[in-house]
Design brief:
Blueprint lengths: L6 H11 L4 E5 L5 H10 L3 E5 L3 H8 L10 H9 L3 E4 L10 E4 L14 H13 L5 E4 L7 H11 L10 E4 L18 E5 L2 H11 L6 E4 L2 H32 L3 H8 L23 H11 L5 H27 L8 E5 L14 H11 L3 E5 L5 E4 L2 E4 L5 H6 L2 E4 L8 H7 L3 E3 L10
Parallel strand pairs: 1-2, 1-4, 2-3, 4-5, 5-6, 7-8, 9-10, 9-13, 13-14
Antiparallel strand pairs: 6-7, 11-12
Helix pairs in contact: 1-7, 5-6, 8-10, 8-11, 11-12
The structure holds nicotinamide-adenine-dinucleotide (NAD).
Length: about 425
Amino acid sequence: MSAPPTAAAELLLAKAHDRSAVFGIVGMGYVGLPLAMELVHAGYRVLGVDVKASVVDHLNAGHSHIKDVPGESVARAVREKRFSATADLARLTEPDAISICVPTPLSKTKDPDVSFVIAATNAVKQTLRRGQLIILESTTYPGTTRELMLPALVSTGLKVGEDFFLAFSPERVDPGNPNYNTRNTPKIVGGITPTCLQVAVALYQPAIDRLVPVSSTEAAELVKILENTFRSVNIGLVNEMAIVCDKLGVDVWEVIDAAATKPFGFMKFTPGPGLGGHCIPIDPHYLAWKMRALNYKTRFIEIAGEVNAEMPEFWVGKAIDRLNDRSKALRGSRVLVLGVAYKRDIADVRESPALDIIRLLTQRGAIVSYHDPYVSRIEEDGARLASVALTAETVAAADCVIVVTDHSDVDYGLVARHARIAVDTRHVLPGSLD
Ligand SMILES: NC(=O)c1ccc[n+]([C@@H]2O[C@H](COP(=O)([O-])OP(=O)(O)OC[C@H]3O[C@@H](n4cnc5c(N)ncnc54)[C@H](O)[C@@H]3O)[C@@H](O)[C@H]2O)c1
């Protein structure tokens, strides 16, 4: 039988009930800002904490730097004194509940880089007081909350589940998704103790339509990695099928669309230029790393990672073949890359396969330009380019156009009409020139 809630827990439950709790969000990025706004809409006051002064100033001036969050929402929340931002980590003593939404990238050797989680945990530890709930939102390997955060927080002398509360609740935000947002996407929560879970669920309840409690922080951590590994493996499978179909001279899109008519036992995934973004190419490697330490090799993760990473090379090879058919070399050819964001209708280029494609083209001597309605400049991976206008002239001036991102508001008809050669990694061009 679990212990009855302590006075500290009872107080937090009451503050959730009457919305008098103050939330602190550490990391005001793609995950932190939408979560902050949902908590404000639910009636809480929210303090946004970020180490970047420019982000803090922008938010306090009532602007949003995240496309899915309207500037007006931030402006209203600031005006009504329901939201403010700070770079002063000492103010973490003020909130009753603190959600940590900092990056969890990979190191150059593909090992987890949990330095941001450690830094945020240390900041929270400096000001930890009785009656605070700490929730880690960042995607990470199973064991992070208990093995990395808990020892730091209990070193203050406060007891978990009695004085303070610790939980893991993975963010599932899907930037650019018009149907699902932070509020209407069910949210997994796992606590270090049953009281931690109870308190975390109670505090999130007013802001999230459906909370899904699980039995431990490890289970919650693993749910998120399973979700992203599921996508990585299935995308890897259809990408391999695209290579197979290419070798067999079969249209992979026809095969996938026909397979998708099966009303059970098949889920449609589509091939493309490779994986991008902060999650799917990265998160499975957190689990692979953890399992390596336990002497187990996660084979599906490795193979999917390999296949997906090969796709930029595959598509550049297609461009080379097409040019070759017209007796042209890639070296010296003008190549227009259409879309550099890692997915449709967003401005995020993190881990975007377009950057790999541009690098591979440039290394082989192509003269590369790009168009992306959401990304005006790229300065990554050695490439320094500005988006060119998409006109009949710019398309016709290119020896080859490679469609990398399938943004909705691009005139693909114009591209199909004027491109000399088109390589369509997303199957969006009418009549499919590819
Ligand atoms: N972006 C997504 O679509 C998405 C979806 C689900 C989960 N996640 C996960 O959520 C986490 C955050 O991702 P994101 O995309 O929001 O990252 P982001 O880079 O957009 O935002 C992170 C913010 O944290 C700030 N920051 C870094 N260290 C800090 C510290 N010690 N104290 C305070 N602020 C700090 C940064 O300045 C930045 O503004 C990651 O673990 C990611 O894997 C992201």
